[in-house]
Design goal:
187 residues; single chain; mainly alpha; elongated; 7 helices
Length: 187
């Protein structure tokens, strides 16, 4: 048995024919990957910009859980989590012609929207609504956890790697929910 080698172009085929489609496809894949990575990063950046004054405001003085990491940890962790989320969604997008890929990407968008609401609600809502904002954020983060689990469940049959890439995000969100709950209980 001979190993597979690409066949040479026939004499009637123009030079480079057949490679343009492959090149276009590769460029499309790279651009899509960049887009899928940038969108979650933009969500995180927007949330950070909208809440920075509150992080340095009331939150700096709040009674935090003893297991709360230093503030410097949150930015890098979320950057990595958003990167993994984007790569996972891109892996599903690559199989977008599969029957269940679009619904899986739709629930991914839902969880990303929920994610984008949590920071402004938790940090920005407190000065307006006090402890009620912390409890609303707690309810929201629980819904977000369910949405992440549902996203992973829908990703799994399409790409197990994509589903597993969301595991650290799920773990961190569950951890973040304990921080939210502690502050809500002690406020």
């Amino acid at each position: 048995m001979t190993p597979y080698t690409p066949s040479a172009a026939s004499p009637d085929t123009p030079a480079g024919a057949g490679t343009t489609s492959s090149l276009d496809s590769s460029v499309k894949q790279i651009l899509a990957l960049i887009l899928f990575v940038v969108i979650p990063q933009a969500v995180g950046l927007l949330g950070s910009l909208l809440t920075a004054d509150q992080v340095d405001g009331w939150y700096a003085e709040a009674s935090k859980a003893p297991w709360t990491p230093p503030e410097a940890v949150f930015g890098p962790v979320w950057t990595v989590l958003y990167l993994l989320m984007g790569i996972g969604a891109w892996l599903i997008w690559r199989k977008r012609h599969w029957l269940n890929a679009r619904p899986a990407l739709s629930i991914f968008v839902v969880q990303l929207v929920l994610n984008s609401i949590w920071s402004p609600l938790f940090f920005g809502g407190y000065p307006w609504f006090g402890a009620a904002a912390l409890w609303m954020a707690m309810a929201l983060i629980l819904v977000l956890i369910i949405a992440i689990i549902e996203t992973m469940r829908r990703f799994w049959p399409i790409s197990r790697v994509a589903a597993l890439l969301l595991s650290p995000y799920l773990a961190w969100t569950i951890y973040a929910s304990t921080l939210n709950l502690y502050i809500a209980l002690t406020d």
